[in-house]
């Protein structure tokens, strides 16, 4: 910025905005057509900046006179002589390579792998920044490589393959063997996902186990009836007990009963996160895992008892329930089991995510249910028998209290009309997301919800179902009655 002009104070005022008001200001400029100050920043920074007196000073300086505005010049060292020898221009050619690498990295973080590949070709400076592995988090195998052996081999002959961080072994149009896996061994993967679509019959157990244990995150999904990966998994777990980088493990629809409890115990002892999604596992195995598992580990368990097949010893849950960070149950618990779970969570609750699907909660006292429901951050409820009006009212009352932790709620098949519009609206606007499926709501509830929303809200997502289900806002009942203003 040209400090020889009368705008020498611009740098000072802008610095006050950034440092004292904690506003990560990205860009501001004067629109020549509208003669208005334009600001590019996040919404919170915009609010802070526009409320400060420095913003008014900056705007005043930029609007003084046309001649003074022309004296405001941006330059770098290579154009400094040119700027001194000729009339200053508003936006001279800038050498972006001279930007601090920290600034370039902050900008590049907004880009995906496809754009980053382009940046690698711009200059040596940009390539050095864009090469940062942290920018490539989530970069996976291109889809075309799954369709052809030739394209797969061509990709791995290039240097871009070395940036792969995420590998999903799922549907491929050709069969894998050890030769293909040796390509993967040269990578520095952070995450691997194995799904039931992949055929690993020609891949050695030892090679697969080595690849998996070189990753920090591992997810394996199987079909319990086929148990395709049973032998592979046992070798993976045995290697985990000796040497591994795995910190997060997710097992989905797998049959674990053939694996010795001591192998599971040793494999899980250093994990920081573990997820059992609808797995078949014995009581002794559960006991062994939780005996060695770190006390601060994140533990998610999903159980499906709706088909009448007992794959998880739910009575064993009583002893580990206070250590879970996520729990999903589909079906009907044993007599008195749900009440015991609620009592345990009421006394000691680490849960962040709770799903109760097709569960009859009418036996639970309203205040106990409300206390537990508002101790978790994410709540998904679809009751087989509708909760009583008193239970629903207590839950919504607890939501509006300052000590409620719940931020995201997904409901289905409930009659919410008996909740007063004022309580309903206030509670919903305290949340960050609210999806109410096929729940019954009244016109007055919807109108009051939007009235409160217009005054101020925490809501970021609202609808009948989660966005991935494809429902949009215009599917909401009574939405056409809301005043657009």
Structural notes for this entry:
The structure is a single chain. The strands form two sheets. The chain has a twelve-stranded parallel sheet, with no helix packed on it. Strands 1-2 form a two-stranded antiparallel sheet. The longest helix has 13 residues, at 8-20. Helix 16 links the parallel strand 9 (326-330) and strand 10. Helix 1 (8-20) runs antiparallel to helix 3, helix 17 (366-373) packs across helix 18 and helix 19 (421-430) crosses helix 20. By secondary structure, it is α/β, with parallel strands linked by helices. Helix content is 37%, strand content 14%. The chain has 20 helices and 14 strands.
Radius of gyration over C-alpha positions, nearest whole angstrom? 29 Å
- In terms of quaternary structure, the protein is single chain
What is the percentage of strand-forming residues?
Answer: 5-15%
Number of strands: 14
- Helical fraction equals 25-40%
The helix-and-strand class reads alpha/beta
Could you list the spans in which at least 5 consecutive residues all have pLDDT below 50? 1-10, 72-93
Instruction: Compute the number of helices.
Output: 20
Side-by-side strand order of the widest sheet: 3-4-5-6-7-8-9-10-11-12-13-14
Query: For the residues shown, what is the average pLDDT?
Result: 78
3D shape: flat
Q: Sheet bearing the most strands, described?
A: 12 strands, parallel
Distance between the termini: 42 Å
């Amino acid at each position: 910025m040209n400090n020889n002009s009368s705008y020498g104070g611009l740098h000072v005022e802008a610095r006050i905005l950034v440092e004292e008001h904690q506003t990560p200001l990205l860009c501001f400029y004067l629109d020549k057509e509208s003669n208005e100050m334009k600001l590019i920043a996040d919404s919170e920074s915009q609010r802070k900046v526009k409320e400060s007196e420095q913003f008014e000073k900056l705007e005043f300086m930029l609007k003084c006179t046309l001649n003074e505005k022309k004296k405001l010049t941006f330059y770098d060292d290579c154009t400094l002589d040119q700027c001194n020898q000729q009339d200053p221009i508003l936006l001279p050619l800038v050498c972006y390579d001279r930007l601090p690498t920290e600034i370039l990295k902050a900008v590049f973080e907004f880009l995906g792998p496809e754009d980053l590949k382009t940046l690698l070709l711009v200059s040596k400076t940009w390539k050095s920044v864009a090469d940062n592995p942290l920018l490539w988090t989530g970069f996976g195998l291109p889809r075309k490589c799954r369709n052809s052996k030739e394209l797969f081999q061509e990709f791995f002959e290039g240097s871009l393959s070395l940036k792969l961080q995420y590998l999903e072994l799922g549907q491929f149009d050709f069969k894998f063997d050890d030769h293909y896996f040796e390509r993967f061994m040269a990578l520095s993967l952070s995450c691997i996902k194995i799904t039931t679509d992949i055929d690993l019959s020609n891949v050695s157990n030892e090679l697969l186990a080595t690849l998996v244990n070189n990753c920090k995150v591992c997810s394996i999904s199987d079909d319990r009836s086929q148990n395709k990966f049973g032998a592979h998994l046992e070798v993976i777990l045995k290697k985990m007990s000796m040497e591994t980088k795995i910190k997060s493990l997710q097992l989905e629809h797998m049959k674990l009963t053939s694996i010795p409890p001591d192998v599971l115990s040793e494999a899980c002892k250093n994990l920081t996160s573990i997820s059992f999604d609808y797995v078949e596992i014995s009581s002794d195995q559960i006991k062994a895992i939780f005996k060695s598992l770190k006390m601060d580990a994140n533990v998610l368990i999903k159980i499906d008892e709706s088909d009448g097949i007992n794959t998880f010893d739910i009575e064993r849950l009583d002893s580990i329930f206070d250590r879970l960070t996520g729990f999903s149950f589909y079906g009907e618990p044993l007599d008195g089991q749900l009440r015991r779970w609620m009592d345990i969570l009421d006394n000691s609750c680490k849960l962040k995510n709770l799903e109760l699907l097709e569960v009859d909660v009418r036996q639970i006292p309203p205040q106990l249910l409300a206390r537990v429901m508002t101790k978790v951050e994410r709540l998904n409820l679809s009751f087989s028998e509708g909760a009583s009006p008193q239970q629903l009212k207590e839950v919504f009352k607890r939501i509006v209290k300052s000590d409620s932790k719940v931020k995201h709620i997904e409901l289905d098949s409930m009659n919410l009309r008996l909740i007063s519009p004022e309580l309903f609206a206030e509670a919903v606007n305290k949340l960050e997301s609210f999806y109410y499926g096929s729940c019954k709501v009244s016109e007055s509830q919807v109108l009051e919800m939007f009235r409160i929303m217009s005054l101020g809200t925490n809501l970021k997502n609202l609808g009948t179902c989660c966005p991935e289900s494809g429902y949009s806002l215009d599917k909401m009942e009574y939405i056409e009655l809301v005043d657009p203003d």
